């Protein structure tokens, strides 16, 4: 595009100003149109578009009867009408773009082909992209598959292939590893085998899971890392009870990594943790009280340990495989001979205000369990992190909607760290890898100990949208390193990124295209007295059969 612009604007010197101006304007217009007409959803669903985000908007507009908390995503998806947008403002498309073949008891068909690309000009940047990695240069991720449904049994097989140029970039003593080769990997992707009966689902899956109310980040589980293989038992819809509606999900999964590759929670440097797979047990429960309309409450917890410790455990089945319900006691944590474990706990709230087409939400968590009330009272914010955000919709004259969204993610250590360090929010004592899979953080992927402030404005009409994003990222502002005096010291420089971006999405019949372009300015990049800029762009094209 730059070369094309250069060719158009040079021309013959006898050409008038008008001639040069229209050529320049045309070229810039093509670039802006392409970028703004085609946005990257925060959570691409199994079907290639963010249906959960559309349901969220429909809730605020009073156009959806769904009572989901949206703390557990993706929401159970239909198979016959996977691109059903009948609940969207300004989009009356209710056809079935997937050519599904079915009989009275059996349905099968092709899932969409989804091709995603990512480009970084000067440095690794970007998150919430599943199998893609933090790297410089071009990346591609291709996903496609089939599905079948027979009675209560649903099968989705959708592997993902990832390739990244993984070219060299500027590093420092604190950040980065110079890559030695391109990266490629095949993941099971968004695949699952589920048995769904009476509102409950039981099965095995490798799809990405998002827990919590966040739009741009999540403290526990998101789509930042590749989906990991897991067993799950869940509700497929809110279960009505006398005290309100309940949703829950229980997960038992297997985490792994290539220890020769850099870790996101080690500042993209090569850590040398214990080379063993890890067992992860997670549970989330949500509650929409019958006496508090439009209020959703939730709590989630995770617990992990090394595979060899799980194999050698002599505990009962409950304490061995459902550790999330019986975390280590204060005595266990103090006993150096105890099995090494790591856990997190979060609480969440979402408050809808349909009258004003608005919502507020918060997620607050600890990476170090409070052992008793004295521990909580003496140092309440120790090892804590939180996400707070809002979404406001405004109806526009042309049946479109303006979406104003903001979010603050705070993962840096609190002031109590001066006396009692809590370390990385995704890594605490026993399990050196922390909450990662394939070297990538399972939760908020902006980076280890980072604070992020995001403001986004989007014009939405059906599945078409165009928007603007402003982001500020404080790279581990309270981080410590082991200094020359053989003690932990704070860095002298603060590394801060400012990102300005445009994004868009457009649908042409069975084709859905999205893109995002960001200009990123880093002050004291890699904690060095050096400023650096970066061009970051992503795109996604999904074709529905």
Describe the structure in brief.
The chain has 545 residues and is mostly beta strands. The protein has 7 helices and 28 strands.
What does this structure look like?
With 545 residues, this protein is mainly β. Helices cover 11% and strands 41% of the residues. It contains seven helices and 28 strands. It has an 18-stranded antiparallel beta barrel. Helix 1 (2-10) runs antiparallel to helix 2.
Please give the structural blueprint.
Elements: H1 2-10, H2 17-37, H3 51-60, E1 72-73, E2 101-102, E3 106-120, E4 137-150, E5 153-157, E6 160-164, E7 183-187, E8 192-197, E9 200-205, E10 210-211, E11 230-235, E12 239-241, E13 244-255, E14 278-289, E15 295-306, H4 307-312, H5 317-321, H6 330-334, E16 341-353, E17 358-366, H7 373-378, E18 384-395, E19 401-410, E20 436-437, E21 440-441, E22 451-461, E23 464-475, E24 480-482, E25 488-490, E26 495-508, E27 511-523, E28 532-543
Antiparallel strand pairs: 1-10, 2-3, 3-4, 3-28, 4-5, 4-6, 5-8, 6-7, 8-9, 9-11, 11-13, 12-13, 13-14, 14-15, 15-16, 16-17, 17-18, 18-19, 19-22, 20-21, 22-23, 23-26, 24-25, 26-27, 27-28
Helix pairs in contact: 1-2
